[in-house]
Amino acid sequence: MTLEQGILQFLSGVAPVTAVVGTNLYGLIRERLPPQVAQLPAVMVQRTTTLRDVLFCGTDTLVSTDMQVDSYAMTGDDAWALAKALRKALVDFTGNFGEVAIDTVHLTNEFPMTDPEPGIIRIVQLYNIWYQED
Fold first, then answer.
1. What is the pLDDT of residues 36-48, one digit of tens each?
2. 3-state class (DSSP) for residue 75
3. What are the CA-CA distances from residue 66 to residues 53, 94, 102, 125, 126 (Å)?
């Protein structure tokens, strides 16, 4: 299981998040659904950086990864409410994202953006996640 899959699995079990997005949790590309299917609000997760420390005895299995988590909604209030639910679920988390052992999660930046699609609001959160890679 990848870290991305683990985060999506974890978030699918966080009631304040799923109360807002339902099953609209995506990996790198937000799926295009037929217009009759509600696509928003939604969450998109993507990896932006991965650092592995090389030790004298080999590469350390404790990995530092930066993940971008985007909250999409039609209004700023809804996007910020979703971002807050994600922040409360992820900041300082230790445990497992699915099968991935998480050492710690830190929020390093958070800011609003206008999505390229007109009328869609996006809140970008950048998390630094330390986890054990198998």
1. 445 789 999 999 9
2. coil
3. 15, 16, 13, 10, 7
Instruction: Give the CATH number for residue 63.
Output: 3.30.2000.30
| Four-CA torsion 77, 92, 99, 2, nearest 10 degrees | 60
How many whole angstroms separate alpha carbon 59 and alpha carbon 55? 6
Q: Beta strand 25-26 with 42-55: parallel, antiparallel or unpaired?
A: parallel
- pLDDT tens-digit series, residues 45-67: 999 998 887 777 776 788 999 99
Which residue shows structure tokens 């404790």?
62
Query: Residues 58, 52: contact at Cβ < 8 Å?
Result: no
Q: How many residues does the chain have?
A: 134
For residues 121 and 80, give the distance between their C-alpha atoms in angstroms, rounded to a whole number: 9
Instruction: Look up the pTM and report it.
Output: 0.86
In the chain, how many domains are there? 1
Whose CA is closest to 80, among 120, 45, 122? 122
Residue span of the structural domain in which 102 resides: 3-30+39-132
